[in-house]
Amino acid sequence: MNQGALYIVSTPIGNLQDITVRAIEVLGRVHVIACEDTRNTRILLRKWDISTRLMSLHRFSENRKTRAILQRLEQGQDVALVSDAGTPAVSDPGSRLVRAAQEAGHRVIPIPGPSSITAAISVSGMDASSFVYLGFVPRKREQKRSFFEKLRIMERTALFLEAPLRVKATLRTASEILGARRMVLLRELTKMHEEILSGTAETILAELETRPEVKGEIIVVVESNAISRPDVDISDAVKALMAEGLSGKRLADEAHERFGVRKGDAYDEFLRIKRLDATEIP
After folding, report:
1. Does residue 247 surpass a pLDDT of 80?
2. C-alpha–C-alpha distance, residues 267 and 264, integer Å
């Protein structure tokens, strides 16, 4: 008997029209669809006249349901995994199932499609040649501050998620630490009340403060540290720090912190200047 395949199917993040032809075909022919919430997935299936049987798989049941799905795969049944919106196993349940299926030797097949991450960065106007996805912001105050302290020195565009009830408090912390760093807040992407706010944490917070409440799913894109700082001459920066008595690793750290210079470049320039000083005729 041939073993079944596990299909990881991306579904719309809001607008039900945002689904691929291949996703519709796969969802219509597999033996069962594993989903976070059967009520949400039924809305999508009714839209596209799909009658495939559903089974729930959420973060509280993933371990137990994984065993049941592996049994189906062993029996030759094909199974599709979907989340409530977007791509499964990205800030949603599914990664344990995927790993277990791979380790058991089953085929795991991606059916790509909608993603709030790529949708957000595509309209942010920021460099997308290299970016980092950070998931949800920590809830506790000190962890949240640490989160933004690390983000502050990142030299790549960064994205994070936040819940509507916590977004104002999060933007206050971001404003304190990131200052004038440019960011874009995207709310309810592809849905009826889609909104994109661009500015700094302070200006975006000022807009949200005018509202009695904030609703919907939120993703924030933050410009990289390297982009937001003005261009500086590495040699001038290193010489200025050497004049303060700094050297070696500490100088490299300070060059990165103050001027946005890469640590390795600052250290190499420090060594170059030291060599020149050593060869100068008294």
Report:
1. yes
2. 5
Residue 242 has pLDDT above 80, yes or no: yes
3-state secondary structure 209-221: HCCCCCCCCEEEE
Q: Provide the whole-model pTM.
A: 0.76
* Cα–Cα distance measured from residue 99 to residue 248, given in angstroms and rounded to the nearest whole number: 44
264 vs 266: CA distance, rounded Å = 5
User: In this structure, what token pair is assigned to residue 108?
Assistant: 């795991």
6-25 burial: b if 16+ Cβ within 10 Å, else e:
bbbbbbbbbeeebbbeebbe
Instruction: Give the Cα separation of 232 and 237 in Å (integer).
Output: 7
H or E element that contains 35 = strand 32-35
Q: What is the pLDDT confidence band of residue 282, given thresholds at 50, 70 and 90?
A: low
Class of residue 164 by CB neighbours under 10 A (exposed 0-12, middle 13-18, buried 19+): middle
Q: Determine what percent of the chain falls in helix, strand and coil, rounding each to the nearest 5.
A: 45, 20, 40
Structure token pair of residue 185 = 């807040």
For the residues of 65-115, what is the DSSP string, one character each?
Answer: HHHHHHHHHHTT--EEE--SSBSTTSSSS-HHHHHHHHHTT-EEEEE----
**Residue 57: per-residue pLDDT:** 92
